[in-house]
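Hello forum,

I keep getting stuck at the same step: I have a sequence, I want structure tokens, and every attempt I make locally crashes halfway through. Rather than fight my setup again tonight, could one of you with a working pipeline run this one for me? It's a single chain of 61 residues.
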Amino acid sequence: MRFVIWFLKTTVVHVLILLLMIAIALSWEAALDKTVAIWMTSITLIVLIGGKLYYYYKNVK
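Reply #2:
Ran it on my machine without issues. Output:
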């Protein structure tokens, strides 16, 4: 539970960046571009969560 609270407190800027990426992806016209944007957003989200998990268990806990 402590991780969830810490994660939410330190993720506000990252969530705003992800929302911006999704907005950009939805504004693109070609279907291929939307697919690429969705993949990039997914990869960014995975890296964000993985990096925060690593940092938390290495430094905060």
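The chain has a mean pLDDT of 79. If your local run keeps crashing, start a new thread with the error log.
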